[in-house]
Amino acid sequence: MILITGGTGFIGSHTALLLLENGYEIVIVDNFVNSSREVLKRLERLIGASIPFVELDLRDEEALEQLFMTYNIDSVIHFAGLKAVGESVEKPLYYYENNIGSTLVLCKVMEKFGVMKLVFSSSATVYGAPELVPIVENTPLHSTNPYGRTKLMVEEILKDLYISNPNWSIALLRYFNPIGAHESGEIGENPNGTPNNLMPYITQVAIGKRKELYIFGNDYPTMDGTGVRDYIHVTDLAYGHVKALEKLNKSTGIDAYNLGTGKGYSVLEVVKTFEHVTGVSIPYKFVKRRPGDIAECYADPSKANKELKWEAKKTLEDMCQDSWRWQKKNPEGFC
Ligand code: NAD
Ligand code: UDP
After folding, report:
1. Calpha distance 230→203 (Å, rounded)
2. Atom of ligand 2 nearest to the CA of 228
3. Which DSSP state fits 241?
4. pLDDT score of 33 more than 90
5. Atom of ligand 1 nearest to the CA of 34
6. Given the DSSP bridges, would you call strands 177-179 and 265-266 parallel, antiparallel or unpaired?
7. Max Cα separation, the chain?
8. Which atom of ligand 2 is nearest to the CA of 124?
9. CA distance 117 to 106
């Protein structure tokens, strides 16, 4: 059975669904700090069965031990974490305590119960402002904010863990920019308050919740001056976890993998594609650069293509279509 931490969150819920569809047994844990109970209901409706779920904070060691005693867990996908860069600058201790503290407790309990297969949600943010794109996994790591440093530190902790005991089998999955939603429109990204990320902001403009999109900078050294990112459909990303698990089941070790499409799109390209696919126009205004942003970030995903036998298949058009379907069906998110 696979333990999915943070399984009612955006990426966790899509991965949980895909695992269930592929016949895996799972148990989800979450404390709902950034998700809704409604996600579980939607997942159960989509799959037509009840899903084992335990509400707990991962830092609660006793509750986690109880969970490992109750369920026959053989591997863990660890999504749980806080992810807002701006908030991490304001509340660094909260971020370090939650993201690192929960991982320490999780690993301790895993070790105690002899569970040594772990997929960890890392991020392209561990590359900081890379000198070269596309980004390969052995690019020097560096982080510019507390959120990113929690990812970097957890990666280091997991490397030490493997050195201490080579029976561990760990995949560090460095996600690029996940967008899109399940094609049913039943689950998707549900940001609290004003979205920080581009796609949820665009869909909220499209549905009339926000007046216009503010594009952060049009003077970057990119094709049209706006920032370039590697957007990846959340379903493709979810599939990367299934492939990573297959690899962990075959060999021990610790490896990092970029999960991206390998193609960068500018903010203006995303806006134009969204307009083209949906027929809805997105008014926008250029404003100054967002502090900490980099010009270009896109993956070289060839290591994951080769070693995990995984590649992203969905197009930017698919991502826009599915993000829009989710937004239209759920104008107020999960409620
Ligand atoms: P999300 O906030 O939707 O999901 C994270 C889930 O973890 C939430 O449901 C939250 O309630 C839960 N959680 C947080 N702390 C917890 C704790 N102490 N105990 C139990 N549950 C806890 O985020 P997401 O977009 O699905 O991201 C999943 C993971 O991927 C995160 O670790 C995130 O940092 C990482 N990541 C996300 C992105 C992205 O753009 N979405 C990019 C790179 C990496
Ligand atoms: N962006 C923007 N307006 C917004 C949100 C984002 O212009 O309201 C830009 C941002 O500057 C970056 C790209 O869109 O170039 C992707 O931003 P996002 O926050 O989604 O991802 P990240 O910057 O974390 O990779």
Report:
1. 18
2. 15
3. H
4. yes
5. 11
6. unpaired
7. 56
8. 25
9. 12
Counting ligands in written order, the one closest to the CA of 266 is 2
Q: Give the pLDDT of residue 335.
A: 78
Which ligand is in closest contact with the Cα of 64? 1
User: CA–CA separation, 155 vs 120, rounded Å?
Assistant: 8
Q: Any bridge partners for residue 186, and if so which? A: none
* Catalytic positions: 147
Q: Is the CB of 7 under 6 A from ligand 2?
A: no
Average pLDDT along the chain: 97
Report strand pairing: 265-266 vs 228-229: antiparallel
Please state, in angstroms and rounded to a whole number, the distance separating the CA atoms of residues 108 and 118. Answer: 12
Residue 272 tokens, joined: 């134009």
Look up residue 67 and give its two tokens.
């969970």
Q: b/e map of 116-154 (b: 16 or more CB within 10 Å)?
A: bbbbbbbbbbbbbebeebbbebebebebbbbbbbbbbbb
Q: Is the CB of 290 under 6 A from ligand 2?
A: yes
For residue 168, report the distance from its CA to the centre of ligand 2, in Å.
36
Per-residue model confidence (pLDDT) at position 227: 98
pTM, 2 dp = 0.98
Residue labelled with tokens 């109970």: 37
Nearest CA to ligand 1 atom 30: 121
Which 3 state secondary structure label does DSSP give 191?
coil
Side-chain half-sphere of 302: how many Cα atoms within 13 Å?
A: 5
Domains of the chain: 2-180+231-260 (3.40.50.720)
Tokens representing residue 28 in the block: 């989800």
For the beta sheet containing 26-30, the strands, ordered from the edge strand earlier in sequence to the opposite edge, are 53-55, 26-30, 2-5, 75-78, 117-123, 169-175, 253-259
Pocket flag, ligand 2, residue 83 (CB < 6 Å): no
Return the best residue to mutate from 18, 30, 32, 118 for the ligand 1 pocket (most ligand atoms within 8 A of CB). Answer: 30
Tell me what the mean pLDDT of segment 214-227 comes to: 98
Expressed in angstroms and rounded, the spacing between residue 6 Cα and the centre of ligand 1 is 6
pLDDT number for residue 236: 98
Amino acid at 266: S
